[in-house]
Amino acid sequence: MGTSDDVMIARAARDRADVARRWRTGSLTGGGTDGNEHLTAINGLILIVLLAVIGFTIPQLRQFIWPHLFVGLLLIGPVLLKMASTGYRFVRYYAHDAEYRRKGPPEIVLRLIAPLVVISTVGVFITGIGLLIVGPAHRDPWLLLHKVTFIVWIVFTSLHILGHLPAVARAARIGGRGHAQGVGAPGGAAGRWIALTGAVVGGVVLAIVLIPTFASWTAHSAFLHHHHH
pLDDT of 116-133, one tens digit each? Predict the structure, then answer.
């Protein structure tokens, strides 16, 4: 009798340990396609806010050059996370992962503009960092390239974000349907929040590290030089 009880106790302990292990794993990496969509959508909300700040600074760049530079660098973290989450879905789908095949591909328009979003994203940040490093005295041809890639990027990135607005609304629990789905939120929430926090903190750290390079652009003479050309 004692042996049987010992076996049952040991089995129950193993079952509890297995459940705990699955919960820890699921809390970090679970969620599947729904978790991936949720991560992309929440990150999309962050990008919308940051892009709105960037848009606000552009008409009065002379006055708001410091926040333009800081937020522009901060954007790098969330943008890289956005490319990673959408790229992950792309790879899993075309690798014939059963769950992602059932989910289906993104809308055809989003698939068509995706290469332009990626190329312009790389272009706008490379030219932006290049401008930051060389300073206003040596801004040609960096400035022209930055303006062109920024226009292309903002157009196609805005279209991309608009295409994901329904998912963003669900992730933000906007409306009855989004609220209802919030009750059964996908697993992996801890992992998603770690990724989101890491992306934002990483962007902030990068911006802080590069603050000393802002000086040549924030100086009044930088804009006098600009107007003389």
Answer: 888 999 999 999 999 988
